[in-house]
């Protein structure tokens, strides 16, 4: 947004000696009428999402804008420097990054997307093999697409039905097709399509069992059932409209049995999705504390928010709304925060998008 003075019309009657504290009402809210005399409404919508200064929450400070927490990191600096050279159309890299399966399969997918697997055509190109045709079906060119998709042996695998979640099984099946091809070439062993699928499903079941993915759909409900009676559960979400940039929040509070305590939404103004989600938590906490609830479990579907709020070392973050939320959590009552799947947070999500 830049310095406010750059947004003020030259003809405005500006008091250059005015302090920020003079722009705050007695109830610790912004005096927006004073701002409206100087800046346009689009700037007002950026100001309203910034908490006014308060002596209990420390001084304002310069922050690193390239990270959600406002804290500098080498990772965020690297992404900032590489942003212009990154092709946003190459969304297929997200398949590798977000793949929920064994690490060796993730490495295999990375090699496949980089065209680094030694198919016969690639071996012939490098001069380490005399023939570029497929060793299984005899096709003229055995490239990566042929091995993993077009070869009749691969097509037989893809035609079969699968019982596990596809997000995990896709990588495993692709990997086993490649392994089956190597077994045929180097050891003269050939697996049937059914055997490839069975082994892939076995790997998938073991992986999901040991990583706990089979419990995730019940995580939120089991947490509520196993909690004491005096704990309340605050489901929160924040949303930002893509076209306008305006943000809103939604919150729903329930008791251990799922009974409704309170639900509400609020228009924020213009901010980032991260700030909107933190605002949703802050507003929800303040309302529940005012109602006398002291033991609060915060449920959010944003993993970054959950991780940052769980790290009390970030209490001195430069982002005001985050710093205020952290200090209230530190000083008031008992709390815990849980990351939940998006499909368990649909009510708060709908409220935020009203």
TrEMBL record:
Limits of the RNase H type-1 domain: 236-353
Short name of any one Pfam family annotated for the protein: zf-RVT
SUPFAM superfamilies: Ribonuclease H-like
Signal peptide stretch: none
Gene Ontology molecular function, alphabetical: nucleic acid binding; RNA-DNA hybrid ribonuclease activity
Domain Reverse transcriptase zinc-binding, residue spans: 72-158
CDD domains assigned to the protein according to its UniProt record, in alphabetical order: RNase_H_like (cd06222)
UniProt name for this protein: RNase H type-1 domain-containing protein
Organism annotation: Gossypium klotzschianum
